[in-house]
Design a protein that fits this description.
Elements lengths: L1 H47 L4 H6 L1 H41 L4 H38 L1
Helix pairs in contact: 1-3, 3-4
Length: 143
């Protein structure tokens, strides 16, 4: 009869882990968008980087903006990836707590809070990168 109880306990932990897994799916989608934006920044930089003389001087501000955008999106990706890793650790700790019978709710709470803080920081970095990108559009309209 103990095996049935163990299976029930594992099934319960799996049910508890479903919400964090859905969160991981959302973070994966966000990371895909960020990676695409980084690719576009890198592609545009590769077009402008080999320019020399007057041509390069005409694009100096854009090159500087691209470098800043790349830094911000890099941080956004790093922080959102950290969030995803922390969510994975939350899931692992859920199973460890279930198997060992230890009370790990405080650990899970701290890990989840850290994950959410990393996600918030990553999204703020992403928002800054978007602001830089839209400032370039505003500057081009003004010319």
């Amino acid at each position: 009869m103990e095996a049935v109880t163990d299976i029930t306990a594992v099934a319960h932990v799996i049910q508890e882990a479903v919400a964090p897994v859905f969160l991981l799916t959302g973070i994966g989608a966000i990371l895909a968008v960020m990676s695409t934006r980084l690719s576009r920044v890198v592609d545009r930089f590769r077009v402008l980087e080999p320019l020399h003389g007057h041509e390069r001087a005409a694009h100096t501000a854009e090159i500087a903006t691209l470098q800043a955008r790349a830094r911000w999106i890099h941080w956004a990706i790093t922080l959102c990836t950290l969030c995803a890793l922390l969510i994975c650790v939350v899931i692992v700790v859920l199973f460890i707590g279930s198997e060992t019978g230890e009370e790990l709710s405080a650990t899970i709470a701290v890990l989840f809070i850290a994950a959410m803080l990393a996600l918030v920081a990553g999204l703020l970095c992403f928002l800054r990168e978007i602001a830089l990108a839209t400032n370039v559009i505003s500057a081009r309209r003004a010319q």
